[in-house]
Amino acid sequence: MPTAPALAPAPQVRPRTPGGGRGARAGWTVAVAVPLAFLAVFFVGPVAEIVGRGFVADGRLDLGGFGDVFSRPRTWRVVGQTLAQATLGTVGAVLLGVPGAYLLYRCRFRGRDALRAFVTVPFVLPTVVVGVAFRSLLVDGGLLGGLGLDGTFTAIVLALVFFNYAIVVRTVGGMWERLDPRTEQAARALGASPWRVLRTVTLPALGPAVASAASLVFLFCATAFGTVLVLGGRRYGTVETEIWIQTTQFLDLRAAAVLSVVQLVVVVAALSVAGRARARTERALTLGGPAATARPVRLREPVDAVAVVVTALTVGGLLALPLVNLVVRSMRTPRGWGLDNYAALAVPQDTLAVSAWQAAGTSVRTAVDATVIALVVGGLVALVVSRRPRGAPARRAVAGLDTLFMLPLGVSAVTVGFGFLVSMDAPLGIPVDLRTSPVLVAVAQAVVAVPLVVRTVLPVLRAVDPRQREVAATLGAAPGRVLRTVDLAVALRAVGLALGFAFAASLGEFGATSFLARPQDPTLPVVIFRLLGRPGAENYGAALAASVLLAALTAGIVAVCERLRRPGIGGAW
């Protein structure tokens, strides 16, 4: 019987390795080079220019400014006020935000999604609007004017808690809803009381999320500008407002440079703590899914009852009251109630070259440009930082890149804006004066918005199981196709939220824009601040109406973008 011919051995198919190939390496090189070039030209360069002018005299390094600045009692007072405001604002936001995180992310009740969206509104409001809202509430004639809190340290701390409450709620809540409830159930079955379960089981598990939220809140409180400038002025200034005063009023670049360095040290320390805590948080988020942990509110449970009471008082008294009062006060005129203040937005006030409506149009156009830039740059950074290299040097490089692109959150926007003015006449030696270009305002706003894009998209990309990429590569997909079908498909889930945060940050940016906006093309925050600085009830009423307009624009955009995201995405920052 004839034997069958031997079959030829099957060819060996070598699976493609993710990220392999010359083309892939070139693509990753571009993904790293473009954001680094953007950061070098539009952040490092301007900041270095300002710092250099403060520390270089007659072509030589002169560090005598440190001794001069720190010998002034005012400097120590400003630094002390900055740390005190940031510390108390952080403590207040955490104490009020943890019960809110439990109620909004661990419990289930009618209207929960709407309440989640509402508590996010203060964070996306421009800082100038926050300051105006609290001042209209606390000033003489305001709803709480009799408390005597206008222009006080307490008013600033309350406004900082108002602004940062959502960070704690979303960061802690995003982890809380993913905690495995079986550990708590086991403790309860063994006889532990609800409070003991919370203290010994739940809160320790939430430690990374609380630490991450607290460090971010401290960072935002320490670098608050518009809110502190409106509420505290020069009396209760921070390092941020002091840099603005030394630069714009005293032209003391040396003092501004010293204070910028001090602020940078604080920022790097806060970002380091946030990065370590956030890494632990992102690993813990894989413990469970949000749908399985939510349960109905039980008011008979002491933990639930306390969470409901604290959250109700916080939302009603701290979040809603200033916003409602702002709207009500904007309709009060010297002749009674009406819409005269809103009608006044259509015509220029006093010496302003444009009307508030024209400034709003300029703000929207500029914010659109800034958002596009921030999405491109921030998306590339998030894509690169989301990788998990095997080598220790590569891991340190990725972590360093992540921290590097967080620095614009903490470095004074005033320093960046003034740096643009003195360094953009010929950036990198190119004989092009960008200071006359309206695009420069959008670029400055994008510098501030890029970290928000990174923080929104990065957790989503890091949640991708690396085995998905390996399986796609093993089946023969090219690196570009793996990136497109796995990473980019997942990242699109967070783009809506990232777009909203970037647009809101750009629309309300005030520090750098106050330097760069041309008199004939001011943005709406600049117009509001100028109206507040002019005497007269008409100017104050127009400032209130313009603040309501700006708040409605930012909240509306974020609400639309929030609906574009997928459920369960973007809960933790």
Automatic annotation (TrEMBL):
Gene3D superfamilies with a match to the protein in the record: MetI-like
The UniProt record lists the keyword Mitochondrion: no
InterPro entries associated with the record: MetI-like, MetI-like_sf
Entry's localization field: Cell inner membrane; Cell membrane
TM helices/strands, residue ranges: 26-48, 83-105, 117-139, 151-172, 205-233, 253-274, 305-328, 367-385, 397-422, 442-464, 485-507, 540-561
Topological relation to the membrane, as annotated: Multi-pass membrane protein
Annotated stretches, region: Disordered: 1-21
Annotated CDD domains: TM_PBP2 (cd06261)
SUPFAM superfamilies per record: MetI-like
Keywords, comma-separated and alphabetical: Cell inner membrane, Cell membrane, Membrane, Transmembrane, Transmembrane helix, Transport
Record flagged with keyword NADP: no
Residue stretches making up the ABC transmembrane type-1 domain: 79-272, 360-561
Main subcellular location: membrane
Protein family (similarity comment): Belongs to the binding-protein-dependent transport system permease family.
Name of the molecule in the record: ABC transporter permease
Source organism (scientific name): Cellulomonas phragmiteti
